[in-house]
Amino acid sequence: MGKLDQRVAIVTGAASGIGEACARRFAQEGARVVVADLQAEAGKKLADEIGGFFVQTDVSRAESVQAMAEASQSEFGRIDILMNNAGIDGDQAPTSKSDLDNWDRVMAINVNGTFYGMRFVLPFMIEQRSGVILNTGSTAGLNGLPGLPAYSASKSGVIHLTRSVAVENAPYGIRVNAICPSVVQTPLLNHFIETSPEPESTRRNFESMNPLPGMVTTEAVADASLFLVCDDSAFISGVALPIDGAYTAR
Ligand SMILES: NC(=O)c1ccc[n+]([C@@H]2O[C@H](COP(=O)([O-])OP(=O)(O)OC[C@H]3O[C@@H](n4cnc5c(N)ncnc54)[C@H](O)[C@@H]3O)[C@@H](O)[C@H]2O)c1
Q: How many Å lie between the centroid of ligand 1 and the Cα of residue 85?
């Protein structure tokens, strides 16, 4: 018996990194997974490997997210789990020198994308009187992060949206939580390191940033995510769970 037998789970940003690890983990536990991503080739490949269903999705466009929700519902007849995970780090610059388009792009994907996911999947969950939503926040949304104003504000927005939607939808038996990883070895993190002013020292800082040794692995994030989307966390809603080896406990 898997922890997610008979469940239908949508994972956005599932073609890479954290989303891919979670999609694989949820499928191992018996879920039928909707792989939703901009990247068609990698997304289809993963869907084939895990027996999932690929839907090309741009989370920054409301009509694309609505089509993703409707395609998932018509393919499987229900949606039990939504993981709003697609996100970008954007450009690094101090606030006084920040590019205005970068602000809009990061907000469009990280905040609007998370909102659109909930906006278009919640009606199906409310009708079912059940559902679990997991949003990918970040420790950047809990602690101040210099040089990345759009990203940190976007993740703070994701965390607060999570809390508000959790309270609002609790009467329908719907749980809504967020995960807040610190530094996870993924293409997004490599982009961050390579575009920083001193990539080698940034990498070294990240390697020693968490009190627990090393960086967070995608598998550790997938394990924590599985806990929050399965019945083991049946009465947990509205939390933003750090996965950070005690980084935010300092
Ligand atoms: N890597 C880290 O250290 C870290 C830490 C904390 C939080 N996060 C968050 O985890 C999430 C996943 O990041 P990751 O590190 O796995 O990155 P990643 O770059 O490996 O994966 C991100 C995925 O999102 C997809 N994507 C990007 N824009 C999209 C859009 N508009 N519509 C649909 N899909 C889109 C990409 O194609 C990619 O497959 C992000 O929300 C990120 O902010 C990452």
A: 6
Whether ligand 1 lies within 6 angstroms of the CB of 239 is answered as no
Task: Look at residue 97 in the predicted model and tell me its pLDDT.
Answer: 97
Q: How far apart are CA 104 and CA 69, in angstroms?
A: 24
Q: Looking at 116, 151, 172, 247, which residue is catalytic?
A: 151
Strand ranges across the sheet with 32-37: 53-56, 32-37, 8-12, 81-84, 131-136, 174-181, 240-243
User: Considering only the top CATH level, what class is 8-185+218-238?
Assistant: alpha beta
Query: 151 catalytic, yes or no?
Result: yes
68-115 pLDDT, tens digit per residue, is 999 999 999 999 999 999 999 999 999 999 999 999 999 999 999 999
**164 — pLDDT class (breaks 50, 70, 90):** very high
Distance 97 CA to ligand 1 centre (A): 24
